[in-house]
Design a protein that fits this description.
Number of strands: 13
CATH class of the largest domain: Alpha Beta
CATH superfamily of the largest domain: Periplasmic binding protein-like II
Strand order of the largest sheet: 2-1-3-13-4-10
Helix content: 40-55%
Order of helices and strands: HHEHEHEHEEEHHEHHEHEEHEEHHEHHH
Strand content: 15-25%
CATH topology of the largest domain: D-Maltodextrin-Binding Protein, domain 2
Number of domains: 2
Oligomer: single chain
CATH architecture of the largest domain: 3-Layer(aba) Sandwich
Distance between the termini: 57 Å
Number of helices: 16
């Protein structure tokens, strides 16, 4: 073969190869294309769940996950740009109405996937030991009743600790967040004044503390706490551990008066008193995990949910059904559940796991 023919052949082969790569990239970027496989799916939402879901997706090769925050993930689920959504808090009525309008009248089905803790990192000048907080004291900090670190209410819970007179910088989420919703709901349960000033549980609470600094997603809140002396915030325990910030973790007062550090073990303890009916009621399940009466339970324990359509065909998402079921079946298997502790999370209790598993086969 002469050189001109070899060159023409090389150009042709190169063009075919480039076209193949382009098609592959296009397939990866499109929810509908990725959903055409019976084993792969796309998820979007909760940063609380990101470390676990990304680990599961990488290990199983069954999914890809975009960590945007619960509010953004719910919108992707409503818009059909993800096969399943991910949120730490239930949909509000406007979101339910929007979902029904855009996706053929369907409703969401909630699949709890694991248990986790909302940790309270604090960075206080001169303080080298974990601080201790009750729900009422934290509510006072986040609604502005308590604005300096040497406030008598903080001092009373931390005997022997020298606290500065510095102003408290409160680090919060800038994006719509299920972590924010659960944390603000827990604070509201602890303080009627917090409810009056800030309001009920919300993915975007109207915080009323005088010195607020916002961070994007849970890692952004952690960065805020680390970079601002005399600050406090909230974030999922898994992200705190991943960032190497365990020294900042506070102890939270349980119902029996003890102060508990968030760990996979204390999160597991909180799950021992929780139950789930079928179909799973996300509000009731979250409520049963917060302020658990179990011995050694961490008080701000929650679960996080995968959102599935009650009817994928009706929602116009038929090709996403098989991939979503494959991912959920993997998530409820021993390999996925056993991987959680190393991340800082905890497996689902048997009763909740059983209730969740039973829902997978009902998807259509």
């Amino acid at each position: 073969m002469d050189r001109s023919k070899r060159n023409r052949r090389g150009v042709l082969v190169g063009a075919v190869a480039v076209a193949g790569v382009a098609l592959a990239v296009a397939g990866c970027g499109s929810s509908s294309s990725s959903s055409s496989s019976s084993t792969t799916s796309t998820g979007s939402g909760s940063t609380f769940a990101a470390l676990a879901y990304n680990t599961w997706c990488q290990n199983s090769k069954l999914c890809s996950y975009s960590s945007k925050g619960s509010a953004a993930g719910i919108q992707d689920f409503i818009n059909g740009t993800a096969d399943w959504g991910a949120t730490d808090s239930p949909l509000k009525q406007p979101e339910l109405t929007q979902l029904a309008s855009k996706r053929g009248g369907v409703t969401p089905i909630y699949f709890p996937t694991f248990l986790g803790a909302i940790a309270v990192p604090a960075n206080v000048s001169g303080v080298k030991v974990p601080l201790q907080f009750s729900g009422a004291t934290l509510a006072g900090i986040f609604d502005g009743q308590i604005s300096t670190w040497n406030d008598p209410k903080i001092a009373a819970e931390n005997p022997g600790v020298t606290l500065p007179s510095a102003q408290i910088t409160v680090c919060v989420r800038s994006d719509g967040s299920g972590t924010s919703s659960n944390f603000s709901g827990w604070l509201g349960d602890a303080s009627q004044e917090f409810l009056t000033k800030v309001g009920a549980a919300s993915k975007t609470p109207a915080w009323t503390a005088p010195h607020i600094t916002q961070g994007l997603k849970n890692p952004g809140v952690l960065s805020c706490v680390k970079s601002n002396p005399n600050s406090v915030g909230y974030a999922d325990l898994a992200d705190v551990i991943s960032a190497g910030d365990q020294s900042l973790i506070s102890k939270i007062k349980a119902g029996n008066g003890t102060y508990v550090t968030p760990t996979p073990a204390t999160v597991t303890a909180a799950g021992t008193t929780a139950t789930a009916s079928t179909p799973i009621d996300p509000k009731a399940l979250q409520k049963s995990l917060l302020n658990s009466t179990a011995s050694g339970a961490y008080p701000i324990t929650i679960t996080t949910f995968v959102l599935a359509y009650s009817n994928y065909q009706q929602a116009g998402m038929t090709k996403a059904l098989a991939g979503t079921q494959s991912f959920l079946n993997y998530a409820y298997g021993s390999t996925a559940q056993n991987a959680l502790t190393a991340l800082g999370d905890a497996p689902l209790p048997p009763s909740i796991l059983s209730a969740a598993k039973s829902q997978v086969s009902t998807l259509k």
